[in-house]
Structures are given as structure tokens and as C-alpha cells.
Amino acid sequence: MSEVDVVLPDGSHRTLRAGATARDVAEAIGARLAKDALAARVGGALVDLAAPVPDGAEVAIITPASDEGREVLRHSTAHVLAQAVRRLWPGAKYAIGPAIENGFYYDFELPHGARFTDEDLARIESVMREIIAEDQSFTRDEMSIDEGLHLFADQPYKIEIITKVKEGASDEEDLGEVAGGASISIYRNSEEFVDLCRGPHVPSTKRLGHFKLMRVAGAYWRGDEKRPQLQRVYGTAFETEAGLAAHLHMLAEAEKRDHRRLASELDLISFPSELGGGLAVWHPRGGIVRKQMEDFSRERHQAGGYEFVVTPHLANARVFETSGHLGFYKDAMYPPMEMDNGTYYMKPMNCPMHCLIFKSRARSYRELPLRLFELGTVYRYERAGTLHGLMRIRGFTQDDSHIYCTEEQLDEEIASLLGFVMDMLRAFGFEDFSAYLSTKDPDKYVGSDEIWETATEALRGAMERFGLAYQVKAGDAAFYGPKIDIDVRDAIGRRWQLSTIQCDFNHPERFDLEYVGADNQRHRPIMLHRALFGSIERFFGVLLEHYAGNLPTWLAPEQVRVLGVRTDHDDYAASVAAVLGAEGVRVNVEPGDEPLGARIRRAKLEKVPYVLVVGDEDVAAGTVGINARGSEEPERGVDLSEFLSALRAEIAAHERPED
RNA sequence: GCCUGGGUAGCUCAGCCGGCAGAGCAGCGCAUUCGUAAUGCGCAGGUCGUGGGUUCGAUUCCCACCCCAGGCUCCA
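ok -> C-alpha cells follow
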């Protein structure tokens, strides 16, 4: 055959001479594309531009400004990072260096147990820039496993990877290195540097350059804390300097809306170190927001047919033995307290207590579904290194409910629950949901296959009816039943896992829960666990980040601040505040001792939704000037009653002035 | 838990080679009375995370501990 015919993504064909490469395809399409090209996708596989294209293959050229293009750029930049580290630390062992979301990393073991420090980043970066300027080409080679073992003889991590491949590599990850079954692929970008790699890579280092090393970290080899800890360098790379700058800017923005920063700046919450790690206190301005959240939650639950219960924070070990927590969850529980009549634990979950309420007397099918709701505070011992502001904390309050129902009621109960959950999340400004369905772990479960099937289908059916996109996490269920976890997307596109709905066949069994059915027989109820906020603390943290601290008016700790232009307007300002306060508006007056501009600035920094400025004209006409958060131009001379009714409407609608 | 970085006034941070601890903001006082993001002057504020060590002398150097942040999952 002297020619090959390839199919392009638009369905058109190109005919090239036999032995043509992906680069030839790009050139056949256009000089501009050939210049941009970084790699190619041939028959579904990513390959180098130098790779030959077989007859009949589908060929797509990968350019920098695409997800795949950036991945190639980042991966190649990771190689340059490794090369630079090997120049600076001769004898450094190098492990793995993949592209990851938003960047790349590479793991090393430095000679004599050396560690990277922040100062090293600048040195490594400048060597990387030298390597890039040297315009080294990346060339692929394939060799036998034995040749590979020889080539990387002084590289224990590479040897481990190759050996696993040789042994028939149970891991899919390692199979990626096997080309043709018995060989491995390597890339050289000079005589100086060679790396075991699947590729593809950019043609030459000169195609790189818009990168930044971000941080150093320790990382266990293969993510296993029993194995050696390597030194990891994280970096990011983009196809243009502007892309890199935009990414760095986004990171700066995300930092500005960090809930820990906002919680402190807005005087909402603090984490006194005297209390110990992972324990928060709510200040008055945070407390009032929490009260709004809780009041709203209780209202919704009351309307949804829930009953309110309260249970203690501390319980005898017996109850956690019965529930299985001491068997399955002990690592996350606070250590036991020995007391006169036994051993006690802080509760890590509310379910055992709710089961005891169910069990306190005989139950009839007429009572089901029985929905017990509690804002229940739980304590979990999280490892010190995993604590993170309000998102990962050791003491928190769940908007927790356990629903006891019959097998026949399960389907409808889950369906209505899903609607209930999403209504609640929407009320807090989240619109974009996705979900995970976690199914049975075949090695670890309780209950019959039939009931798992019923429950899993009930969960699946409910999500499909709601048009909720979901992914299945096979085998990820709790041992006691399948579950749905619901994610929300926040204002800057990040996903947060909040709500969860879980079926439980374990607790009813362990607590021997029963109800008497219409047939006068005893039956075992099914139990649903569900939390909408998840944890109030975490939900509050997510809200702060989502709104960048600009909470909607119904939640804002202070909704209105009234400022007189001069001190002689203070009385009128107080009368305006009195009118609003009588309507339940959270309002304060700041007297006119300081210049107006300074007082406005302070109110803005405190993110008060409405600043009312009142002066001579307002006193005379009974009006207010409105400076709304987020608006460019203040309004003058608005009738107070008009402002009040607009404010009431906004509060009722859970909106923000900037909406 | 482990790696890296950090802990100095309420907050944000400066403090080179060891020599009596600094700034801005916030706070307090006085003056200023002002129409939409910083009025001026003054005052006060610290066991430099904790405990040891080296030294004539330690915020600074060494050791241990505590707390905070990032990372330890996305595959050479």
C-alpha cells in the first residue's frame, strides 16, 4: 500500500503517503494547524505528532487551547520539572509526575533525605526555563521490559513500576505502560534526561513556558502512608501567559472568598485555639444567621410532616455496641469516658438515639412513615491534618432525620424526599445539582439481595423522575444500605457535597425495631437517614464561599443600617430604624459622629445589604436614601413605606439586593 | 499521623549578621457636623506560641512540644 486514508473529526478524508505521521496530517490540513499542533488522537488514543497514522484511522489534531492540549502541556512540563530537579540534586530518584486538574506534579526522593523548601521553587523554576530555552525535543522509544529494568537500574520507583508490568500488573495504571504487551515506552528530551512514560508529549520543550511552580508537599509513594514519603512539587501550566494569569487570578479570588477569612472579617465565627483543633464558636453575627437557617429548616420540616425530637450528646457504650458504631466507626469517635456505672462516648451520629425513640413503645403501621427530626450535635474525631475550617470540623450539628417506613412506602418516601432536599437547597440559592448513587459492596453488606435491589431502584427511580444527573459509585454504599449524595455547584463552579439520603437495613435489625401491620403481624421497618444541610457548620461555610460573604437579605446578620448625614439627623434615623425594627427587620443606626463616607465604607465592608442615608430632605419629606449593596448609584428620596415593602418582598423571596 | 511553610499588639504584617520591639488598620479620648467606600490630633496596646538550652545578652541561634495553613485522590 502506498497511501493511507484518514478520517478527520468533521468526517472529511485525507489521503497521505504510506508511513505518514500525525504531523503530516496536520500539515495536510493547514500550515497554521501544523504550527499549533501538540499531539494527536488517533483511533481514540493520544499519540505524539511523530506517530504514524494507520490506514482508515480517525485522526484529530490536539492543539494547546483544549483540555487534552493542556494535559499534554502539563505532563511535558512535569518532565521538565523532573529534569531540572535532577540537575539541581544529582542522584535524586524520580517517581511519578502526572498532569492533574489545573496543573501537574512530580514526586521525588532527594539524596540524603533532603527536603524541598519554598525557596527551592524559584531555583527549580529558573533551571526549567533554561531547559525550555534549550529547545530539547521529546523523542519516544520503546524497549523490552528487561532493557527497561537495565536502563532504570538506579531508579527504584521506576523499577517498581516496570516490575509490576512484568508481573502482569494487576493495576490498570501500570498496563498503560505496556506497548505491544511486552515492552515499555520511554521519552528522552536530551541525553541528560529520560523518563518512563506513556506519553504523548509536546514535540519540543520550546512549546512550554507558561507555567508556575505552586508549592512543595510530602506525598506518600502510591498514596500509602506505610510506604516512603516522597517530596512532591506542584505546578500549573497553560498554553498562554494570559491563561496562566487568569488561573492565578481565579485562585486569588477563591482565596478572597475563603469562608475562614470571611467568617473572621465579618465577625461570624472563630476557632479559638484554646478550645483545641476543629472546634468553632459562633459569634453574635454568625449566631443570628444560624438561627435564620435553623428556623427556616424547622418550618420546612414541620410542613413536611416531621416530628421534632431532642437527644443527648453523650451515651453509654452499650448503645453504640448495639448500633454497630463501635464495630464500624470507632476510629472516628472520641475516646471513651469511664464513669461510675459504665463507659460513655460522645455521639458521632444521631441514629441510635432516634431508634431508641422508635423503640420506646409499640408502633403501629398507622404511624408510618414516622419522621423524626433533630438538629443534632455530633462529635467526630477527625485526624488533625484533615481539619479544614468549617468544612471539616470535630463538633458539628446535623439537620438530621431518620424516617421509619414500610417497604411499600419506600419508593414514595424517597421520591418526596428528593423534592424536599432540592427545594431546600434552592431556597439557599443553589441551582445546579448532581448526585452519586452508591451501590452495594458485594463483600460488605447486611440485608437480603431483594431489599437492596428494591432500595437501590427506589433511589435510582427518584433521581430519574427528578431529572437529576447522577453517577453510580459501584460498591461505595455503606454496609447498611445504598445512598444518594447530592452535590451543588457554587458561584465559581466548585462542587460541594452537602445532602445525603441513605437507606438502612442495619439499625432496624440491630435495634430489633418492629411495628404491627394491618395483618396484626410484627414487621421490621426500613430506615432512611437523611441530612439536607449535612452539617450546619459546613453548609454555612459553603454559603459564605458561594455568596462571597454577601449573604441574601433574609440571612444577612444585619439587613439595614441607617446613617444620619449629621448628628442632628440621628433622631430621624432612629425613628426610621424603629419602623423597620417593628417589622422584624434587623436594623442598626450608626450616629453621625464620623464623616458619612467613613460610615458608608464600614457598612460596605461589613456587607450590609442596605445602607439608608437620611439628611435634611429626608427629615422634611419622610423619605430615605438607599445605598444597596452591589449597586453603583444610590437612590435618593424614597418613601420609607415603599422601601419597607420592597425589602419585605426581597426577604420573602430569599433574594439579594444584587439579584 | 507524615512532609513543607507559618505563629511578633484585636487584625494584617515589618524586624539584615544576637544588642532596650515597629507600622497600618481596629480600640479609646478630644476636636470636626459632613448627602454616599477612609476627617484630624493624641493615647493606650506585647511573657515576640510554650518550655528548655547556648550566650555577658535571644523575637533572632539550637532542641522539644503546642497550634494554624497547604499537601499526602486523580496513575511513570
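Chain A has four domains: 3-63, 69-253, 269-311+350-431+504-546, 560-653.
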